[in-house]
User: Which sequence fits this backbone?
C-alpha cells in the first residue's frame, strides 16, 4: 500500500489518478479529505503532518510514501514528522518532491528547507528517491483571472527562459519510482522539454486562446504587490522574488534534463500541451476564479 500526502494538490492529485488506474492500493492523506475525489482503490484519511502525535494510524500498513506539502511555513517540521512516522510504521521507501537547486546555500528559503528535509530523509535509513523539479507550468494558472480579463501575464523574471515542467510529468515519474524497481538512492532533476520565457508563454497562450495575450515584465515592487494581493505571505513572496532575480541574472536555471523521458518512456509535455489542456481555464469570457 502506498501513502500519498498532498493528495488534494497538483502532483499528489495527479499521482492518485495514475496509481488508481494501475490498481495499486493507495491511502490519500489530507487535512480536508472530504474534498478529495473518490477513486477506485483510494482510501481518503484525515491527517495534518504538522501534528506528529496523530500520525501513527496514517502510515500503518504502508510500504511506500509519496511526500509533498505545499510551500507552507512549517514545511520542514511537517515533512520530518512524516518521515519519522513512516519509519516507525515500517514504510520502506519514500519518494519526496523537493525543488531544483535545493542546497544549504540556496537563493530561496524554500530550497534551503527542502535541502534540510532531503538530508533528514537520507539519514533515516529508509530507501529514498528525491524529485527536484523545475518551475511548474501550473503556476501560470494562478494568473488565469488576469489572462481572462486583462489579457496579460506578468512576471518579475524579465527575459529569463527556464524549462518549466507540467506537474503531471512529475507525478508520472513519482508513479514509476513508487511502483518499479531501480529508483532507490536516486535524485532526479526534472524539467520540461525546453527553456521557455514569458514572451513565449504569452505567444503560445495567444495562439491557443485565439486572443492576443501580452507579457508585462514586472518590477520587484509591482510583483510584491501583486503576490500580496493574491494572498501570499511575505516570506513566500521574498522566496519567489529571490528566484526571479537569480533567473534574471542568468543563474544556472536553463538546463534541460531527459529524466522524465528516461523514467517514464514518454517525452515531457511542452507548454503548448499544457496550454491546450487548460484552454478552458484561461479562456477570456469564462467566469472569474472563486
Ligand atoms: N511551484 C513550483 O514552481 C515548484 C517548483 C519546484 C518545487 N516545488 C515544490 O513542490 C511542492 C508543492 O507541490 P504541489 O504544487 O503539488 O503542492 P500543492 O498543490 O501546493 O498542494 C500541496 C498539498 O500539501 C498539503 N499540505 C500542506 N500542509 C499540510 C499539512 N500540514 N498536513 C498535510 N498536508 C498538508 C495540502 O493538502 P490539504 O490542504 O488537503 O491538507 C495541499 O494539497 C512544494 O514543496 C514546492 O516547494 C514547487
Assistant:
Amino acid at each position: 500500500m502506498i501513502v500519498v500526502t498532498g493528495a488534494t494538490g497538483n502532483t499528489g492529485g495527479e499521482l492518485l489518478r495514475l496509481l488508481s488506474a494501475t490498481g495499486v492500493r493507495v491511502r490519500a492523506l489530507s487535512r480536508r479529505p472530504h474534498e478529495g475525489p473518490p477513486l477506485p482503490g483510494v482510501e481518503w484519511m484525515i491527517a495534518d503532518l504538522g501534528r506528529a502525535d496523530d500520525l501513527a494510524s496514517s502510515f500503518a500498513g504502508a510500504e511506500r510514501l509519496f511526500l509533498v506539502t505545499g510551500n507552507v511555513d512549517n514545511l520542514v517540521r511537517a515533512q520530518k514528522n512524516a518521515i519519522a512516522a513512516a519509519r516507525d510504521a515500517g514504510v520502506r521507501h519514500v519518494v519526496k518532491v523537493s525543488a531544483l537547486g535545493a542546497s544549504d546555500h540556496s537563493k530561496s528559503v524554500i530550497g534551503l528547507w527542502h535541502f534540510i528535509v532531503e538530508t533528514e530523509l537520507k539519514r533515516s535509513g529508509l530507501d529514498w528517491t528525491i524529485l527536484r523539479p523545475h518551475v511548474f507550468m501550473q503556476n501560470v494558472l494562478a494568473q488565469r483571472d488576469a489572462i481572462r480579463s486583462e489579457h496579460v501575464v506578468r512576471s518579475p523574471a524579465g527575459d529569463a527562459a527556464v524549462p518549466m515542467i507540467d506537474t503531471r510529468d512529475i507525478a508520472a515519474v513519482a508513479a514509476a519510482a513508487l511502483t518499479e524497481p531501480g529508483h532507490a538512492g536516486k535524485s532526479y532533476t526534472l524539467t520540461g522539454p525546453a527553456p521557455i520565457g514569458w514572451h513565449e508563454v504569452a505567444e503560445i497562450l495567444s495562439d491557443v486562446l485565439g486572443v492576443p495575450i501580452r507579457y508585462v515584465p514586472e518590477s520587484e515592487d509591482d510583483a510584491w504587490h501583486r503576490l500580496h494581493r493574491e494572498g501570499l505571505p511575505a516570506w513566500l513572496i521574498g522566496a519567489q522574488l529571490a528566484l526571479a532575480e537569480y533567473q534574471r541574472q542568468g543563474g544556472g536555471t536553463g538546463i534541460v534534463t531527459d529524466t522524465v523521458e528516461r523514467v517514464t518512456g514518454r517525452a515531457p509535455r511542452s507548454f503548448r500541451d499544457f496550454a491546450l489542456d487548460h484552454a478552458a481555464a484561461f479562456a477570456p469570457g469564462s467566469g472569474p476564479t472563486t
